[in-house]
Design a protein that fits this description.
CATH architecture of the largest domain: 3-Layer(aba) Sandwich
Strand content: 15-25%
Helix content: 25-40%
CATH superfamily of the largest domain: Alkaline Phosphatase, subunit A
Order of helices and strands: EHHEHHHEEHEEHEHEHHEHHEEHEH
Number of strands: 12
Distance between the termini: 10 Å
Number of helices: 14
Radius of gyration: 20 Å
CATH class of the largest domain: Alpha Beta
Length: 385
């Protein structure tokens, strides 16, 4: 048996008036996920009580690791993906390039700044900001890092949680507040009217934490696995878990990502002796944060057609039976443009089953199995026979 998790980040949503009270999943053309829903379906609680509903926490759970036990913060996972070494006393922070106008968070992604432009701005910050022990590292698009050697943790807010809101009430509030605000204020002065990418006129620091550690996936589940994703967070999770991380051109984390390269690489891995692939798509979440209903429907339909549909077609090319799971990590409701912690719908189908259609949606999956502890999903539902 081979195993494939197809995860549309933030795909779940709330009913939307302009969609006649349907969610984007219900409204969109999801004929391939509907086939997956003809197998086992249900709801899984990916975010433990008391934890922030971030993609870091939720995906860690879906991958089979208890966030209460292994989670130390988002930025440290992204540091792992970039091979940035953290000593026990170092603290990593996510450093978003953002657009702030008149004190309002207008765009948490700075217009989805291209990675090469972000790298230029990171070089400018490293030259211009002379705070002891503080280093900036480029990532993918707006998703960059700041490492504070021997630094302090703080209480921060993700910038996508405050879209179109005043930023002042959400600046850091803990023991590192004074330094972090100085860094952000000086960066804003440096970036003002920059000629590299004008929409990136500020940075926002959040997702702080120290170096994490997790047992290897192979030791835990006796499966050789692979992680496929455009975003550093997921790559970091994969590296920590000892999963294979393929190099795929054209991954952007948005609607223009290389969907074909992702699914082809997944099946190459499975055909060449691999047991398990975790294929993550970010566009479904990004469009939710944008509050754009049509773009979220587009992202869901692209995921359904170019990832789920191709997986179903290619399943017969394997010598082994294939079990496919389709699910989001958390909801990203259009109405509020940020994550929520409620359980998400999942569906699991095996290639020996007929390709009949049911409906995959938040509503239809509520009639199925309920998994209270998200980190048990992979063992009980995917690997369970």
């Amino acid at each position: 048996m081979k195993y494939l998790i197809l995860l549309g980040d933030g795909m779940a949503d709330w009913p939307i008036d302009e969609l006649d009270g349907k969610t984007p999943l219900e409204y969109g053309n999801t004929q391939n996920m509907d086939i997956i829903a003809s197998g086992i379906r249900g709801m899984v609680k990916t975010v433990p009580d008391g934890m922030h509903p971030g993609s870091d926490v939720a995906n860690m759970a879906v991958l089979g690791y208890d966030p209460k036990k292994y989670y130390t913060g988002r930025a440290p996972l992204e540091a792992v993906s970039q091979d940035i070494q953290l000593s026990p006393n170092d603290v990593a922070y996510r450093c978003n390039f953002v657009n702030i106008e008149n004190g309002i968070m207008k765009d948490f992604s700075a217009g989805h700044i291209p990675s090469e432009k972000a790298k230029e701005l990171i070089e400018i910050l490293n030259k211009s900001l002379d705070f002891e022990g503080i280093e900036f590292y480029p990532g993918v698009s707006y998703r960059n890092l700041m490492v504070w050697r021997g630094g302090k943790k703080d209480t921060t807010t993700p910038p996508h949680d405050i879209s179109d809101k005043e930023v002042k009430p959400h600046v850091p509030k803990g023991e590192a507040r004074e330094i972090l605000i100085k860094v952000m204020n000086k960066a804003q002065r440096v970036l003002k009217d920059n000629k590299v990418w004008g929409e990136a006129n500020a940075i926002w620091l959040w997702g702080e934490g120290k170096a994490p550690s997790m047992p290897k996936f192979k030791d835990k589940f006796n499966k050789d696995g692979c992680m496929i994703s455009a975003v550093d967070l997921m790559v970091g999770l994969g590296i920590l878990a000892g999963l294979h991380i393929p190099d795929i051109d054209g991954l952007t984390g948005f609607l223009d990502t290389n969907f074909e390269g992702k699914i082809d690489t997944a099946f190459d891995f499975l055909k060449n002796g691999g047991d398990f692939v975790y294929l993550h798509v970010e566009a479904t979440d990004e469009t939710g944060h944008m509050g754009d209903v049509q773009k979220k429907i587009d992202a869901i339909e692209l995921f359904d057609r170019k990832i789920v549909g191709e997986a179903i077609k290619m399943a017969d090319s394997l010598n082994d039976e294939l079990k496919i799971a389709a699910l989001p990590d958390h909801p990203t409701p259009i109405k509020i443009k940020t994550h929520t912690p409620e359980p998400v719908p999942f569906a699991v189908w095996t290639s020996k089953n007929k390709k009949k259609a049911d409906k995959y949606s938040e509503k239809s999956c509520k009639d199925g199995i309920f998994i209270e502890k998200g980190y048990m999903f992979i063992e009980q539902i995917l690997f369970g026979e």
